């Protein structure tokens, strides 16, 4: 099958959608499909052979933050050329409801189009204003995929219609096969807790964990907290008593390999996020590596953890509840082993072998009896007047 | 010359209205084509599921009672008239759920000679029916929303195309255990 994938965010900036597109493309190529990914990128950045650059993304303030987007005639021309040369059987776009390359591709193409909705943003003013323009583009999408039941609910509320839920994929074997790092492993009276995420992004919840840490250290003095992620380390420990700062180790940005080894080594993985999550891929990665998970009870997390069966949940933002659960789990090896086993069984549904098969089933469903993807000539101005004269 | 200017403005306005109408008609046409494709895919998915169910029922790997239930439901789904189809397909969903409620039944299918492929086909078939149905009903909803629009109704842009109907059925698949030989590490 010839598959065209559009990634709306810059290839050179790490992010959840980019990783998902990369892993999906590589998985499909391994299965013998022809895949081409169109993504914004600096022309100097080296790209994998299957990625086509759509030009540099321009930073624009949008929806309260700075988004890097592609628009304008040059991008539109590149999209049309890519569509024309690719002759794809199916076009798979990601995040089509933001002003991005995906929306441009959706606007410019006709034929079987599959769209994946990753985030569950509240409906923005811009979207309401643009709705009459957006709707004709969005109604070309033959199949919608939401990455979680939560993302699907928001999609249905905002845009109407329906979507199938297919979770994000994880290479379970990569995490379960990683070598544990002895320096990150805990002993019987010096357990280790792991946290991965941006330090300076409050929604990732490190401040909640820092607030819970004194109570945890009081009950289990030898415990160490290992933090992997970008941000100001001094500021992160500022509210912690000086004597306890030695129990926090910052690892900075870690590679994928080190991330897997960290998750494989720790006695407990804590995800204290306070919001803004529509899936929670890090929890799946932690479970794949066999780390017992303690997470905030966000809708998305609750769903990934099978309603609390595959990992423990605590009320969002409640440092005292987090500390209680962490102390209890750290003192109870049997419960941790139970969580490890249940987690490892549960993550099999997130493995690329399962997720990839589901995505391919969607492709096959929409391509059954449909023509292939082509540039939509009707959007050309000349063609429009040609039609108008009829 | 005010009259000439007025005429030019009227011509421009008419032209714009014409462009808008032709564009809306094109949108509607594309939506109808999308419904047709989605409906064909849904028919294919339903037929595939009924075929594999019938194959299982006549293969002799299930007990006689389960075979009869499954055969009856699969036969009913394949032979149903258009207006009875939703009910018949729902009954097949219920029969599949009842037959495969115990995982031992599915293990028996898998253990039979050539059963691995049949089991994989069944898992794929029951998974695709809800998928195809959602895509179909999503297309129907989009078309209905556009057809309710004033412009479309006043100018009769939908022509003689029938008002699209959603396909309503119980498509909850049975809980089939994953193939242990095809786990995450098998790839």
TrEMBL record, chain A:
GO terms for molecular function: hexosyltransferase activity. Residues 14-172 form the Glycosyltransferase subfamily 4-like N-terminal domain. InterPro entries: Glyco_trans_4-like_N (IPR028098), Glycosyltransferase_grp1 (IPR050194). GO terms for biological process: carbohydrate derivative biosynthetic process. Keywords: Glycosyltransferase, Transferase. Pfam families: Glyco_trans_1_4, Glyco_transf_4. It comes from the Bacteria. CDD domains: GT4_PimA-like. PANTHER family: SULFOQUINOVOSYL TRANSFERASE SQD2. This is Phosphatidylinositol alpha-mannosyltransferase.
TrEMBL record, chain B:
InterPro entries: LemA-like_dom_sf (IPR023353). It comes from the Bacteria. Keywords: Membrane, Transmembrane, Transmembrane helix. Residues 168-187 are annotated as: Disordered. The keyword Membrane applies. The chain crosses the membrane at residues 6-25. This is Uncharacterized conserved protein.
């Amino acid at each position: 099958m010839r598959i065209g994938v559009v990634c709306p965010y810059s290839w050179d900036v790490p992010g959840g959608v980019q990783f998902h597109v990369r892993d999906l493309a590589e998985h499909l190529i391994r299965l013998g499909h022809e895949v081409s990914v169109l993504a914004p990128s600096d022309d100097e950045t080296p790209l994998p052979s299957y990625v086509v650059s759509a030009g540099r993304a321009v930073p624009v303030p949008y929806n309260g933050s700075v988004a890097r987007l592609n628009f304008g005639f040059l991008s539109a021309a590149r999209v049309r050329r890519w569509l024309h040369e690719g002759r794809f059987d199916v076009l798979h776009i990601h995040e089509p409801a933001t002003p991005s390359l995906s929306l441009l591709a959706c606007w410019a193409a006709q034929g079987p189009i599959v769209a994946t909705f990753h985030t569950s943003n509240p409906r923005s003013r811009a979207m309401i204003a643009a709705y009459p323009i957006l709707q004709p583009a969005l109604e070309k999408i033959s199949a919608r995929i939401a990455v979680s039941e939560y993302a699907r609910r928001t999609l249905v509320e905002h845009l109407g219609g329906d979507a199938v839920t297919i979770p994000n994929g994880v290479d379970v074997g990569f995490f379960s096969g990683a070598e544990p790092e002895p320096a990150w492993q805990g002993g019987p009276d010096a357990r280790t807790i792991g946290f991965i995420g941006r330090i300076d992004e409050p929604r990732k919840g490190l401040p909640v964990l820092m607030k819970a840490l004194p109570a945890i250290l009081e009950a289990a003095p030898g415990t160490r907290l290992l933090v992997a992620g970008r941000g100001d380390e001094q500021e992160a420990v500022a509210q912690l008593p000086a004597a306890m700062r030695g129990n926090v180790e910052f690892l900075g940005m870690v590679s994928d390999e080190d991330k897997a080894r960290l998750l494989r080594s720790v006695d407990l993985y804590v995800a204290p996020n306070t919001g803004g999550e529509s899936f929670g891929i890090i929890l799946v990665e932690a479970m794949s590596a066999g780390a017992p998970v303690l997470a905030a009870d966000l809708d998305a997390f609750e769903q990934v953890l099978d309603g609390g069966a595959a990992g423990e949940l605590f009320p969002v933002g409640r440092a005292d509840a987090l500390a209680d659960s962490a102390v209890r789990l750290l003192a109870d090896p049997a419960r941790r082993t139970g969580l490890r086993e249940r987690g490892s069984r549960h993550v099999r549904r997130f493995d690329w072998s399962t997720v990839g098969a589901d995505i391919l089933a969607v492709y096959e469903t929409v391509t059954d009896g449909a023509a292939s993807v082509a540039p939509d000539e009707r959007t050309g101005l000349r063609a429009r007047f040609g039609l108008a004269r009829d | 010359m005010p009259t000439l200017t007025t005429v030019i403005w009227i011509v421009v306005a008419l032209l714009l209205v014409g462009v808008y109408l032709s564009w809306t008609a094109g949108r509607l046409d594309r939506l109808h084509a999308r419904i047709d494709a989605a409906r064909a895919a849904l028919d294919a998915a339903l037929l595939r599921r009924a075929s594999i169910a019938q194959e299982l029922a006549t293969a002799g790997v299930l007990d006689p009672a389960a075979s009869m239930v499954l055969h009856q439901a699969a036969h009913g789904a394949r032979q149903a008239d258009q207006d009875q189809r939703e009910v018949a397909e729902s009954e097949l969903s219920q029969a599949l759920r009842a037959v495969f409620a115990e995982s031992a039944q599915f293990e028996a299918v898998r253990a039979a000679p050539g059963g691995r492929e049949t089991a994989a086909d069944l898992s794929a078939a029951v998974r695709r029916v809800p998928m195809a149905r959602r895509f179909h009903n999503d297309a129907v909803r989009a078309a209905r929303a556009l057809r309710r629009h004033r412009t479309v109704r006043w100018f009769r842009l939908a022509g003689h195309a029938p008002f699209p109907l959603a396909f309503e059925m119980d498509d909850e698949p049975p809980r089939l255990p994953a193939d242990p030989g095809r786990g995450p590490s098998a790839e």
